[in-house]
Amino acid sequence: MSGQGSGGNVLAAICSFFIPGLGQLVQGRILAALLFCVFIFAGYATAWLIVPGIIALVLHIWCIVDAAMFKASGE
């Protein structure tokens, strides 16, 4: 995939916006995708406790930014 700011990273960020971790999965980063997905969904599932919901929202934003700013090694 192309470098930071490329169309691929924009697509990955959009994917992560709708489904947390999907952008990382599109980029081939399976462990990051799995961790983001599990922690964000767990946070949203327990959002009725307020604090986990806030933490999940922050993680979701981080997930989107991470997908958008990713630069593959060797580029």
Care to describe what's here?
The chain is mainly α. It has one domain. It contains 4 helices and no strands. Helix 1 packs antiparallel against helix 4 and helix 3 runs antiparallel to helix 4. The longest helix is centred in the last third of the chain and has 19 residues. The mean pLDDT is 90.
Low-confidence stretches: none
Q: Roughly what is the average pLDDT, rounded to an integer?
A: 90
| Bulk shape | elongated
What structural class do helix, strand and pairing data support? mainly alpha
Provide the succession of SSEs.
HHHH
Query: Considering DSSP H and I runs of 4 or more, what fraction of the residues is helical?
Result: 55-70%
Quick synopsis:
The protein is mainly α. The chain has helices at about 5-20, 20-25, 30-45, 50-70. The N and C termini lie close together (about 10 Å).
Topology (SSEs and partners):
Layout: H1 7-18, H2 22-26, H3 30-45, H4 51-69
Helix pairs in contact: 1-4, 3-4
List keywords for this structure.
about 70% helix; mainly alpha; transmembrane; elongated; TM2 domain-containing protein; about 80 residues
